[in-house]
Amino acid sequence: MNSPTSPTSPTSKFPHIRQDFGASLVVFLVALPLCVGVAVASGVPAELGLITGIVGGIVAGLMPGSSLQVSGPAAGLTVLVFEAVRQFGLPALGVIVLAAGLLQLVMGALKLGRWFRAISVSVVEGMLAGIGLVIIAGQLYAAAGLEAPASGLDKIAGLPGAFVEAVGSAAALASLALGAGTVAVMVLWKRLPKKVQVVPGALAAVVLATAAALAFGLPVAKVEVKGLLDSVQPPGLDAFGGLADVALIGTILAFTLIASAESLFSAAAVDRLHDGPRTQYDKELMAQGAGNTVCGLLGALPMTAVIVRSSANVHAGARTKASRVLHGVWLLLFAALLPGALALIPLPALAGILVHAGWKLIPFRAVVSLWRGHRGEALILVTTAVSIVAVNMFEGVLIGLALAVVKTAWEASHIKLEVIDKGSGPVQAYLSGNATFLRLPKILDSLESLPQDRPVELHLSGLHHLDHACRTALENWAERHSATGTEPVRMTGPEPEKVPSATA
Fold first, then answer.
1. Average pLDDT, stretch 457-472?
2. CA distance 311 to 68
3. Structural domains in the chain?
4. Nearest to 189 by CA among 217, 165, 163, 208
5. pTM for the predicted model, two decimal places
6. Residue 484 in 3-state DSSP?
7. Which of 38, 116, 408, 415 has a 20 to 30 Å separation from 160 between CA atoms?
8. Which helix (H) or strand (E) holds 194?
9. For 50-144, where are the E strands, in sequence order?
10. Strands 304-305 and 415-420, sheet pairing
11. Residue ranges of region Disordered (predicted)?
């Protein structure tokens, strides 16, 4: 008989099995309602959310990258999935997710994972804020048992009318009350004793809402159950014909960009929560790609790393990747053995969970902090969020990225002009920094304000970069200034055409 410390005992092979086992149960309880809620909000069968959670735990969980990060269906992709299913149909979803997964594998193999860390944080937070606003608006309709408009702006604009409609219907009021109660339980759950909080707030809210609906016989819609195997729909050959559609290609790129950015930013956040091994970004991107490839082959939802589940995993005491793999096993057992339990869950309860999740996606503190210290970044965040609501996810993110690039270019083109006028002799002007076309008006205004009846010495040795537009403008200004009858402008230091054309 092996002793507890025997080399062949389970604890010697898996020294942290107790911590990982306990953490896996916590993550499973957190993930279960979220997987179902995200699937329903995405307009697909609830089982597809569970399948993605299973793949995220077992497939992505076994791969190297981030040891404690947990993957699965994410609220951040709900809006994009819903629009894709509405536009292209459910059979095309598998093709989109499969293609996105393969792209992630390629990018990881090319070691592009680390470059996602270069994406402006303001753009990512603006993206999440925009998604949060659309989720909240859409799920308020679901909480009342009403059909939501298609576009983000219509969802928000139609809320007053939807409220009036709900007030006039007893069934809608009952549904709305159940959804509001779910949100209230999740908000108040954190104020209860720590022993009670061992049960995740989302799970407690769903259980209580389900019990209330059954006890009082509330006329609310329930989750429709098809069965795990019946929900698996691998994409057929005809579905791949849609790859010739430019719109479908754009959707694939949007899935790839947003899922990768969200996963790798989540990895950076999770790294700050523990002292274990750091994330290997390229390998983590490949793990996400492998998971999405499998999800695509099964016709399931796309997966990303999810900060809610990941932080729950860390705080529950997980030490190795075994916890996230086990959580996938528990999801698989639940989906296989207790699928009928899903049919008892009221849809307003899931809507309440998504409203709470959408609210947490909006970085209110970050907006206030940025506005106080970096108003340009705050403007990028707000513009990205508004663009996502007003237009769509992909174009909104592109608008945010374009603004971030313009802002960076503007700040990189810092230029300083120092003028020394001793009252007699030539006026000395010293240019330093980066002279680009973005700062050309400022440079010319300053130079043209110099006295026209005095000789000028223009010192260029302090320039790190001088682009063609500025070089031409300096030469033209020198000719104009010299044409007034004064001595020709003298340029000391490197001649304009000899100043490096690339940033030093």
1. 80
2. 9
3. 14-405 (no CATH), 415-498 (3.30.750.24)
4. 208
5. 0.76
6. coil
7. 38
8. none
9. 71-72
10. unpaired
11. 483-504
